Amino acid sequence: MAEQGYSTISRQHLEQRLRTALPDNQDAEQGYALVNVLKPEAFEREHIPGSINIPEGDESVFVNRFSNDKEIIVYCASTDCHASDSVAEKLTKRGFTRVYDYAAGLRDWKQGGNPVETDVH
């Protein structure tokens, strides 16, 4: 995927990553970050357990929070939603070197029988 500058990740690969190591969304360099790039309201409704929310358009948050070689996995709603593609491309242009787009997103995650979390109170 060299022409776009980032790679894609399948549900199976993401499931494997989550089984072997939980996301580390706090450390700037260690582990990997799992980031939902949808609007906060959508994130609150449902998201992959362990993920954080940095909405599309807030790419500067990544720059302030993570080093350029931190592994970052971004996702949105589905292949019909292009927010994660857009964010992955913008991060690559900002110098991030280990960006993965889970383009199939939440729809695929749920179709695979995986749980989602909600933050709605």
- Distance from N terminus to C terminus (CA atoms, Å) equals 40 Å
Radius of gyration: 13 Å
- Which overall shape is indicated by the principal axes computed on the Cα atoms? globular
Tell me the structural class: alpha/beta
Number of domains: 1
* CATH-defined architecture: 3-Layer(aba) Sandwich
What's the total number of strands?
A: 5
Q: Would you summarize the structure shown here?
A:
It is built from five helices and five strands. With 121 residues, the chain is of the alpha/beta class. It has one domain: Oxidized Rhodanese, domain 1 (3-Layer(aba) Sandwich), CATH 3.40.250.10.
Write the layout of secondary structure elements.
Blueprint: E1 7-8, H1 11-20, E2 32-36, H2 40-45, E3 52-53, H3 59-65, E4 71-75, H4 83-93, E5 99-102, H5 105-111
Parallel strand pairs: 1-5, 2-3, 2-4, 4-5
Protein described:
- The protein has 121 residues and is of the alpha/beta class.
- The chain has a single domain, classed as Rhodanese-like domain (Oxidized Rhodanese, domain 1, 3-Layer(aba) Sandwich), CATH 3.40.250.10.
- 34% of the residues lie in helices and 15% in strands.
- It is built from 5 helices and 5 strands, in the order βαβαβαβαβα.
- The chain has helices at residues 11-20, 40-45, 59-65, 83-93, 105-111, and strands at 7-8, 32-36, 52-53, 71-75, 99-102.
- A 5-stranded parallel β-sheet has the order 1-5-4-2-3, with helices on one face.
- The protein starts with 6 loop residues before the first strand and ends in a 10-residue tail after the last helix.
- The model has no long low-confidence stretch (mean pLDDT 95).
